[in-house]
Design brief:
Blueprint: H1 6-30, H2 34-37, E1 42-48, E2 53-56, H3 62-65, H4 68-82, E3 91-94, E4 106-115, E5 118-128, E6 158-162, E7 165-166, H5 168-177, H6 181-209, H7 211-234, E8 239-249, E9 259-270, E10 273-277, H8 294-310, H9 313-316, E11 329-332, H10 351-365, E12 381-389, E13 392-400, H11 428-434, E14 437-444, E15 460-466, E16 470-475, E17 496-500, E18 506-509, E19 512-518, E20 523-527, H12 542-550, H13 556-563, E21 567-568, E22 571-572, H14 574-593
Parallel strand pairs: 10-11
Antiparallel strand pairs: 1-2, 1-5, 3-4, 3-6, 4-5, 6-7, 8-9, 9-10, 12-13, 12-16, 14-15, 15-20, 16-19, 17-18, 17-20, 21-22
Helix pairs in contact: 1-6, 1-7, 6-7, 8-10
């Protein structure tokens, strides 16, 4: 039974979503750093008083908005344990990776919303900050942190405004312990103002419709989202669906326990409920930060992947993004594994690990809904570049794209952020106008297209030249394990990373690089991974293969080798192509029989 008429409920839903979207736009416009302003690595959401998500900014990063309920729940718990009261005018800062945050650089600012003296909601913004006072400059690529204390400042439900009054000592500590404080503190202040805007808009909405109507609409919207998810799960055949993928880990480490790390997912479908069991996943690394917080990273990676596949917006349209979507899903992760580490195991480099976990969930789901998934994705990488200018730090963070695998009826997407990232690339002009760096190449990789009826997406080449002495650190993955092909499609291609010195000598780097000093004239060359192919390459339409050749994605000899397409004058030779494909099928089927 509904608690409010559908029309009013829909109006309130639209209003809630618009509040979150406005918060996001205001945060982008007020931010100083390109990671928020251009890449949109932020989150904005409203929750009820207990932390249940009411709405989120859809243009933000899922890995930022998704954890917000966990932030709020932990803030409430910590303040209750301390005996601290939440009051009107408070602003609370929180980034505890074992208390809801995805990792330390993702700092939340939580504004409690009061009506007639009662706490009725929270307005929250999160964002990735360029530096948080860790062992090396930047807040990503810190792949050698031995524990969470080496990952930077930890804010566990700290009031930065108390009843409307700025808590100056906290801000003094921030400015004294963070590199590039003008950028970072400026971004934090932008977050606060965006959250305050959200709180004000929500109060206006409540005063317009009343708390009873708002509460009723919220409960109905959560029930609606839950029903959709349960119906989608119920449509799956009951059973267990398992998949395994691997992380590179630390390829240059002599300890075998630190590399080739399995991620194991078993989806247990029972009626309209789903258990996601991660038993079999590698143990945590106690002194390397590729571990993933269960709340804030693992849960978001799983929920996002399942929601995106089972409730595709192309089919279902706009679905209310709230806590109802997660009710039918239970996550089991053995304590002490990569996906449920024990404090103080470090977690700051959890980005690629979580993305690979999402890919593993998709690989398991492929067994139940093969037409709704893509083949394996090419993982992302994140680089932090920094230097000094007359004693002042400059810091830049760049998220370098991966690629999607082929999908049923569609080719994989080239050079895009995958799965739970959803960030945008930084324009070359923006990079070169703010830091002493030149972008020499930014293009798709040539002849690295995974064959399939629907080809895999192609990764990008990025080549940077350092114009001054500087340093960088980088977290990535996918140098060992190629993205998986599906339903006869070929596996994709691994990534690589090269440092070329100004004298021309080259050094091949692993997928994770601790802080490394470089000199003016040195170049960093990143080749992104390419997604897996989907379906039999010999079934790819010959005219589409001809277009791939015309677009420069593959040469004509590869069209023949991988797809059995013979081209004459740039067009498919029908008879020769049929003969070439028949020969290849015969050879392949004979090999399979053997």
């Amino acid at each position: 039974m509904t608690r409010i008429d559908p029309v009013t409920g829909a109006v309130i839903q639209g209003a809630l979503e618009n509040i979150a979207i406005e918060m996001g736009h205001k945060l982008m416009r007020m931010s100083y750093s390109s990671i928020i302003r251009e890449s949109e690595d932020f989150g904005a959401a409203l929750t009820d008083a207990t932390g249940r998500q009411m709405c989120e900014c859809k243009m933000s990063t899922p890995l930022q908005s998704g954890p917000i309920p966990g932030y709020v729940r932990n803030v409430r718990e910590v303040m209750e344990q301390r005996g601290e009261a939440v009051r009107p005018g408070d602003v609370i800062m929180h980034n505890d990776p074992y208390g809801g945050a995805s990792h330390g650089p993702d700092v939340a600012f939580c504004v409690p919303v009061f009506l007639d003296g009662a706490l009725v909601a929270w307005s929250v913004t999160t964002a990735h900050h360029l530096d948080i006072g860790a062992l090396s400059p930047g807040s990503c690529g810190i792949v050698d942190a031995v524990d969470t204390y080496a990952e930077g400042l930890q804010f566990k439900a700290i009031k930065v405004y108390d009843r409307g009054e700025k808590v100056h000592p906290v801000w003094h500590i921030l400015r004294a312990n963070i590199r590039a404080p003008e950028l970072v503190v400026g971004d934090m202040e932008a977050q606060i103002e965006a959250a305050r805007i959200g709180a004000a808009r929500f109060l206006t909405l409540v005063k317009t419709y009343g708390t009873t109507a708002i509460d009723a609409a919220f409960e109905d919207l959560m029930d609606y989202s839950e029903r959709l998810m349960r119906q989608a799960i119920a449509a799956l055949p009951d059973g267990d669906y398992s998949a395994t993928t691997h992380l590179d880990g630390y390829l240059d480490d002599p300890d075998p326990s630190r590399k080739n790390l399995p991620l194991v997912v078993t989806l247990k479908v029972r009626g309209d409920s789903l258990v996601v069991d991660l038993t079999g996943t590698a143990p945590q690394l106690p002194d390397k930060p590729v571990n993933m917080p269960l709340v804030g990273t693992v849960d978001c990676a799983i929920w996002l992947t399942i929601r995106s596949i089972l409730l595709d917006s192309v089919t279902y349209g706009q679905i209310p993004q709230n806590s109802g979507l997660t009710r039918p899903i239970q996550i089991v992760a053995p304590r002490g594994c990569l996906a449920n580490p024990i404090f103080p195991a470090p977690v700051i480099a959890r980005f690629c690990s979580g993305n690979q976990l999402a890919d593993t969930v998709m690989k398991a789901l492929a067994q139940a809904v093969p037409h709704q998934v893509s083949a394996g994705i090419g993982n992302l990488r994140v680089v932090a570049i920094s230097g000094l200018n007359e004693g002042n730090h400059w810091v830049h963070m760049e998220i370098m794209e991966g690629s999607y695998g082929g999908r049923y009826g569609m080719d994989g997407m080239d050079a895009v952020d995958t799965l739970y990232a959803n960030t945008r690339n930084n324009p070359v002009e923006d990079i070169e106008s703010h830091i002493p760096l030149r972008v020499d190449r930014y293009e798709l990789r040539e002849d690295r297209m995974a064959p399939g009826e629907w080809r895999g997406g192609i990764g990008a080449i990025r080549e940077f030249t350092f114009l001054n002495d500087a340093g960088f650190s980088l977290e990535g993955d996918g140098h060992t394990y190629a993205p998986w092909g599906f339903d006869g499609g070929a596996d994709g291609h691994v990534a690589s990373l090269t440092l070329r010195s100004a004298d021309g000598t080259e050094r091949v780097l692993p997928s994770k690089v601790p802080y490394c000093k470089v000199h003016a004239g040195d170049k960093l060359i990143s080749r992104g991974p390419c997604g897996g192919g989907y379906g039999d390459a010999l079934a790819r339409a010959p005219e589409v293969v001809a277009r791939d050749v015309a677009d420069g994605l593959i040469p004509a000899d590869v069209a023949l080798r991988d797809f059995g397409v013979v081209l004459q004058g740039g067009l498919p030779d029908v008879a020769a192509t049929q003969a070439a494909r028949a020969s290849r099928r015969l050879h392949r089927d004979g090999q399979q029989t053997l």
